[in-house]
Amino acid sequence: MKIFFILIILIVPLNLFCILAEQSTPLSNRDFDNTIHDAGNVLLRVSNYGFLGSGDQAGYPSLEFPPGSAIDYLYHGAIWVGAKKIRRNDEGFKLYWVGNPSFNNEVIPENHPNWNPSLQLVVDTLTTVGFDGDHSLYEMLPAYNVKEISALGQQYSFYWWQDVVLKNIVNQLNYDNDGDGLIDEDPLGMPFELYDPDSLFCFTIPTDEDEDGLIDEDSDYPGYETSIGYYYDYSPFGTPGDRDWGSSQSSNIHIPLEIAVNQQVYTYPVQYYADMVILKHKIFNASLIDTLFDVSVGFYMDCDIGPQAWGSQFIAPDDVSSYVGAPYEFAYAFDWDGDGGLTTGLLGFKLFGEQDYEFSCWTWSVGNGPDDWDPLDYVGTTRATANEKYWLMTDRNPDDSKYTSLRDFPNTQIGNPVDTRFLYSICGDMQGFANPTENSINIPPGEFLDFYSVIMMGNTVTNLQQKTTLIEYFYNSGFDYSVFGNLPSIPYLIELQNIGNGTSIWAKWDILSQADELRLYYKERNAPAYTWEYELVDPTISEHVLDSLENNTFYKIKVAAIFDSVYLESRTLEIETTSSSSEPDEILMLSSKLYYNYPNPFNPETTIYFTLEYTENAEISIYNLKGQKIRKYLIFNNQSSIIWDGKDEEGKSVTSGVYFYRLKTGKINILKKMLLIK
Description:
Number of domains: 4
Strand content: 25-35%
Number of helices: 5
Structural class: mainly beta
Distance between the termini: 44 Å
Number of strands: 39
């Protein structure tokens, strides 16, 4: 079953960034992998856990607006998923209440001698959260996380570096794992017929939706800048124990829904749309037998708003959250006093759902957040329900003294600033278990739902309403880029390279619409801002060489585009001028749908597969982690593979570890990884 929602984040200035993120943190300290979106007017940190923002883990920026302002608007934002699920014992038999469940917690399986048809089936209401700020809990973790280090041992050491947040810029070959022009086609980089169902990568449930022989292919990533992450609320390796993390984990009993989540984040360097970040969550039901009934999806937003340098203890207490109802349906937060004119923006948050779905938005004071400490209890000892989170997500208030509906009472915090947070969610008609309708939200075994949302930044509530209309139009168009028309767009500075004798730098960029004027700015790194100089560049091209620079000197470089009276700048990159004997390589896509090595990992040899339209001056080179070339193969006509036997040019076997192989011709230059295990 596919269900569509959308969440939008809108913010203002814009820098651009493009990498395939890699984890370099020591294993013992690795909490999560993250990357920063900066292709729009917002710097947003995303992770391969179920949350946005840096929290206490990675520092600033968390959600900075505008770029370069050092003003943050988010401590943590996190996906929450709730559902009803039939309870089973370890043998897989359904469980039933004995007597009145309101007075006891005794259950028996369906194969018990005392079972009879009059007994009530045990159906739990479970909630999995990416982050619970009141209790410091994280329940959606990547496959390779800190709780798997001891359980997986050497396997963890071999594969953890693959489990990262992937990032791609449209039209740039940054995560095209087999050179066919598709982003993130499959994390394993191999054709479907070679896929091992017991793979150690465990990124997500393998699928071949269009039956073209490729795993989980999705070439329809609509973002200009796209990041991709994968995480789970259960251990895909079958590791026993609570799969939760955080300082409150010892007090928490986490009963997983058994969901695997593919998170995609999109940003756009285009006027008006540069102020938003769109999130798509594909939620898989990984159970082989159980449907998730009456699913509710939502986002928890803990907004600490103000200058980064002040610290959360000073910026958190004076924030305000509110809500704008139909037809807009979005929550928003802002700093009450504006920090003396420093913090003037409003962060808006919107879910997109079907018309008949139920929206809810709740707020509470710090420390009074909902819990599900023991979700298998029928009734808690001090609460109206053992799962207050699911009640709030399905628009019910378990405690009037703690929780306030911002949708019903939007002025609750106006004039009364607090350390604000809100939970904004959508649910169906809640008939999915007993009497499902088209407005019920159920996820059968092995199926998924798509959940969209957006964060948006503006200067006034009216401005946020206007942006909501804009993003709804873009969303309803199926993310059709023609909606942008000829809107001014921010250039994206892709890379810098030294060429020649150390006094010239080659710069390459991308831009979605042709500017009236392009300028390539440069200055020495530590020079004052007034020393920026620029060279005019033909607006129809996307590369330029700066000459007559100082050798062995660090430079800052950026691209500016002028559209009539609109001036837009790219991010700034730094480079040190040094002599180079090479010219920049032109990176093009392979004509083949396959470019990979198999097996990977391997021992003692692996085959590198490829298909080229021509083989003139083609070669494949093998490099170690130090960047030293250890083996080279020349490619001849009609050749489609080579075998590396794990030896260097002298015939000596190399040690276990990560190696790189580069395919290079006159027009193609692609580098990929492989792992040798002995």
